[in-house]
Amino acid sequence: MGWRPALTAAALAAALFGIGCSQPPPPAKAQGRVVVLGFDGMDPVLTERWMAEGLLPEFARLREEGHYQHLPTSNPPQSPVAWSHFATGLKSGHHGIFDFLRRDAATYRPDFSIAKYTAPDDLNLFGWHLPIGEGTLENLRRGEPFWLTAQQSGKRASVFRVPVTYPPEPVQRMVSGMGVPDLLGTQGTYSYYTTSRVDQAESGGRVVLMRMQNDGGVQTRLDGPQHPLKPAEGVLQSDLHLKFSATQVEVTLAGRTESLQLHQWSDWWPVSFDYGLGSIPGMVRLRMLAGFPRPKLYVSPIHADPMEPVLPLSYPADYAAELAARMGRYHTLGMPEETWSMNQEHLDEQGFLDMVKTTLAEGEAMLQDALDADDSELVVKVFVQTDRVSHMFWRGLDTTHPLHSESSALARGAIPWIYQEADRVLGQVRKQLKPNDELVVLSDHGFAPFRRAAHLNRWLIENGWLALQPGANESQPLFAQVDWSRSRAYALGLNGLFLNLQQREAQGIVAVDQRDALLSELRSALAEWRDTDGTAVVRRSFLGSELYPGPESAHAPDLVIGYSSGYRASWQTSLGAAPAALIEDNQQAWSGDHCIDPELVPGVLFTSFKPETEIEGIAAMARFLLERTPAGPGH
Ligand SMILES: [Zn+2]
Q: Rounded to the nearest whole angstrom, what is the distance from the C-alpha of residue 458 to the centroid of ligand 1?
């Protein structure tokens, strides 16, 4: 029976025999907490298979004792969109998150859709830019998350690492998740030190070419944030001295020297970037990937240090440091998993998985902190590790993936491992719940293979809807080579297609009264798009105007592309490039995805109790959870 409330003898008698009594009936539910665990990207097909095989005993028990169902996801089924549905109970037309990226119609450039920092005005004085005021930091998600509604009605909420919670919101305690930048202001820029000129980073990282002395010594630098007061001086730097042997490296950085073994992560390494009038504290982790004579060293993005946060990482503001004092330093970047570095072969598989173990343990410690404090009626924690491992290792599971045959044993075991880890976390949490607590476990979407990368902008060019300038370099991102005077449509983001509309786009040519006809023309053609083997590339396409009524609809794509299973927009498409091929085999480690037709990738929902009806979709969770959360003290 676990923690479910035992019926008292009187209540049992009343229930069985209809015995009335003079006392008022007992409350339907004694005060207990609502504890919500999110496992990003947990897929129903895999979950059901592994429950049946006995690999996930805790999930199987929860299903038996309570309730299990598929949870329909958002359209498109992307994490920031789906978790915004979850938080606010609204759809994208109202909460404003349509994709990881949103396009600026004035420039056709993609912007990060989740959070926005506007620097303060500054006073330019002798080359020093002195900020006037604080600048503003804004979560671009609109609507009110249910934990805030709960908190405002006296129900206390502890919320950890939920995507799209930056800056943090004023609840009992919050640690922000996806949206928190690194010290460079990016979503994660790593550094890769190498002596090989062929190493390159397409995105997400910077390659630093090392000049090594004969004794294995290297004098180089770690680039930090921009000089805050003198932007013309470029970035602040910290000296980095390395001495490589075949199996270890002696690192001197920020006044500390330590030896690292090959394939071993360092502990957090505090780094402070001095700018004369002060310094900016951050921290990195390092990993040696190869030794002398051709050494390689990986340095993580520079995280804000939770001990001395220079970014708003938590609510209350000093909670980040309090937590770090109890559990040690932890990853603070919103999306810390090293997917880009591994995709570009700048980090090894074991390094990636060791890092996942660390972030998982950190997440457990945060959750523990709130469960121990036992002062919140609502506790919400999202674990994203299930999603990240599924992205990077799907090729190990999917026997028809182009990279399956060359997948390592580690790659083949990674997804079963992370699901079993999720099961272990669930078991740990269940042990600590009190009899009246309620447990809800959900995912934001499921998963599918990503075998073929569709260059949607190339498809638009071949069909005459997008035009490049003569002699264009086709792999230029950001539509650098597009001739807008001859272009009627363009693709940007992972599921979005936009018309080049007059009075909206800066160089729009499609008249507003031609919009509907062009959209139907595009939809018919998309439905006919076939891969070389005859498979339909697009399962369904959706009209933005139908999906997204609401005050934020100006940011919506005109069409949302629901790819078939196995397909996804290419990375180049998402950033506005159009390589020569129409569709290509996906040859990168990032081999599973979910940005397809949402019907194909529902999430999962488990509850420790039996709800009156099935939950109709992820946007219905906000109200459902708010209603189940008991009143706070004094109510
Ligand atoms: Zn994902």
A: 24
Ligand 1 centre distance from Cα of residue 593 (Å): 6
In angstroms, what is the span from residue 530 Cα to ligand 1's centroid? Answer: 25
Question: Helix, strand, coil % (nearest 5) of the chain?
Answer: 30, 25, 45
d(CA 15, CA 429): 31
**Is 276 a residue whose pLDDT tops 90?**
no
Kindly tell me the sign of the dihedral angle through the C-alpha atoms of 131, 134, 140, 142. negative
Distance from Cα 222 to the centre of ligand 1, integer Å? 30
**Distance between CA atoms of residues 467 and 490, nearest Å:** 10
What's the rounded Cα separation, in Å, for the pair 220 and 206? 14
Q: Over the range 545-558, which residues count as b (16 or more CB within 10 Å of their CB) and which as e?
A: eebbebebbebbbb
Q: Assign 5 a pLDDT band (cuts: 50, 70, 90).
A: very low
Using the mean position of ligand 1's atoms as its centre, give its distance from the Cα of residue 604 in Å. 15
Q: Determine the Cα–Cα distance for residues 337 and 113; give it in Å rounded to an integer.
A: 19
Distance (Å, whole) CA 451 – CA 566: 5
> How far is the centre of ligand 1, averaged over its atoms, from the C-alpha of 388 (Å)?
6
Does pTM surpass 0.85?
yes
CA of 524 to the centre of ligand 1 (A): 29
Rounded distance from Cα 207 to ligand 1 centre (Å)? 26
Average pLDDT over residues 609-635: 94
Distance 392 CA to ligand 1 centre (A): 10
Residues with CB under 5 A from ligand 1 (ion): 387
DSSP string for 346-379 = SS-HHHHHHHHHHHHHHHHHHHHHHHHHT--SEE
CA of 443 to the centre of ligand 1 (A): 11
Count other C-beta atoms under 10 Å from residue 41's C-beta: 29
User: Residue type at 550?
Assistant: G
Q: Which residues contact 266 (CB under 8 A, 6 or more apart)?
A: 251, 258, 260, 285, 286, 287
- Would the pLDDT of 6 be above 60? no
Percent of the chain with pLDDT strictly greater than 90: 81
**617 sits in which H/E element:** none
Q: How far apart are CA 347 and CA 341, in angstroms?
A: 5
Q: Is the pLDDT of residue 104 over 50?
A: yes
Q: Are 292 and 310 in contact (CB under 8 A)?
A: no
Question: By the 8 A CB rule, do 191 and 197 touch?
Answer: no
Q: Tell me how far the alpha carbon of residue 79 lies from the centroid of ligand 1, in angstroms.
A: 6
Q: How far is the CA of 566 from the centre of ligand 1 (A)?
A: 15
> Residue 72 C-alpha to ligand 1 middle, in angstroms?
16
| Closest alpha carbon to 592 in 332, 418, 441, 347 | 418
List, edge to edge, every strand of the sheet that includes 296-299. 205-209, 190-194, 296-299, 286-290
Q: Mean of the pLDDT values across residues 1-8?
A: 31
* DSSP helix/strand/coil, 125: strand
For 269, residues 6+ apart whose C-beta sits below 8 A from its C-beta are: 251, 253, 254, 256, 258, 283, 284, 285, 286
Q: Quick check: helix, strand or coil at residue 146?
A: helix
Residue with tokens 């810390």: 336
